[in-house]
Design a protein that fits this description.
alpha/beta; 281 residues; 4-stranded mixed sheet
């Protein structure tokens, strides 16, 4: 049995959130640069070039890539042979969020009551935490600071099981077209297929933590990712909604078995600042 002190969990979450808010994953940063060089629409190309310069400025000055430093979404795989000592696991994760947003001077955007008081919690907690117990003696943590300009443009649909691949592609394209420039395109699209109403959304969120250079391990879903990306880029929404060739930088799909009577499909939109970071303890 391996023992992990809660202070290690707190420090890891803090470090990951600070890094995620300042340094964009290299594959996404490269995709933005490539898009700026290949975009045929001058206005969209200028917007993409501004995005490239913004990424460089954030890295140089150690400042957030975007002023919306997001709500902290944390995926944790905790090994069954790990013993947590000196405190509670979720408290340790939230303490890491608290310290990251304080020491990183990041905007705190979480309110305690979504409908009535909407009072700011002042430390960006609580985080949304998804924990799985898995074999082994390690803890794997993925952080995803999720901005809400893009989160608000997400959608879910409970398809009839007779729905076709083209129905799925059409739903995703309609979601992107309806969003227009609101999620600061070019976007990264996470798609969750299967499970239940709620789990499809979790799958879509988790899909956004996979690098856009990595295709789904199932060849059929890998092909579908490519087809969706091609279809979305034909919508003409373009960078910041200005039109052009590049509306999405990548599409990632995660899927899960579902009931014979259903076909849930969730679309989680992320802006071009598709932030995530991970580490194993």
């Amino acid at each position: 049995m391996k023992t992990v002190d809660v202070s290690t969990i707190t420090e890891t979450v803090k470090k990951l959130l600070i890094n995620a808010n300042i340094f964009l994953p290299k594959d996404t940063a490269c995709a933005i640069k490539q898009a700026s060089e290949s975009e045929s629409c001058p206005v969209a190309a200028a917007a993409l070039d501004t995005a490239v310069r913004n990424l460089r400025a954030a890295e140089k000055n150690l400042m957030p890539i975007c002023q919306d430093t997001g709500m902290a979404v944390i995926f944790c795989d905790v090994g069954s042979e790990v013993s947590i000592s000196s405190g509670n696991f979720e408290d340790a994760v939230n303490q890491g969020v608290r310290e990251a947003y304080r020491d990183g001077y990041f905007r705190c955007s979480v309110v305690d009551d979504p409908l009535f008081s909407r009072k700011n919690t002042t430390d960006n907690t609580p985080a949304v935490i998804y924990t799985r117990i898995v074999p082994g003696d390690k803890i794997h943590i993925i952080v995803e600071p999720k901005g809400f300009g893009s989160e608000n443009m997400s959608a879910i649909k409970m398809f009839n099981p007779s729905a076709t691949k083209d129905d799925i592609i059409g739903f995703i394209c309609d979601t992107v077209k309806n969003a227009k420039g609101n999620p600061c395109p070019p976007v990264v699209i996470g798609v969750g297929i299967g499970g239940t109403f709620d789990y499809a959304a979790v799958l879509a969120k988790k899909a956004l933590t996979r690098n856009i250079s990595e295709r789904n391990s199932n060849p059929l879903y890998a092909q579908l990712e490519n087809e969706i990306l091609e279809a979305v880029n034909l919508t003409g929404v373009g960078a910041q909604g200005f039109g052009g060739d590049i509306t999405a930088l990548g599409v990632n799909i995660e899927y899960f078995p579902t009931h014979i009577a259903g076909l849930p499909c969730a679309v989680n939109i992320n802006c071009h600042v598709a932030r995530h970071a991970e580490e194993t303890i």
